[in-house]
Amino acid sequence: MNEKAYKSMSFAGASGIAIGIIMIVTGVASGIIAIVGGARLLRDKKGLTF
Questions:
Q1: Is the dihedral of CA 32, 37, 41, 47 positive or negative?
Q2: Is the pTM of this model over 0.90?
Q3: Each residue of 1-19: b (16+ CB within 10 Å) or e?
Q4: What percent of the chain has a predicted confidence (pLDDT) above 70?
């Protein structure tokens, strides 16, 4: 019984670490995309004339 609990705890810990890494990568990627998009908007704003 103890071995089964140990195995499920190790699986839960490993999956938690994997999900955390995926969330960090997607968070960094979406942050970079937002910064680049904002910079493009600010750059293109200078060329507008009304």
A1: positive
A2: no
A3: eeeeeeeeeeeeeeeeeee
A4: 96
* Cα→Cα distances 43→25, 31, 33, 49, Å: 27, 18, 15, 13
Domain boundaries, the chain: 1-50
3-state secondary structure 1-50: CHHHHHHHHHHHHHHHHHHHHHHHHHHHHHHHHHHHHHHHHHHHHCCCCC
Mean pLDDT of the chain: 90
pLDDT at residue 48, rounded to an integer: 77
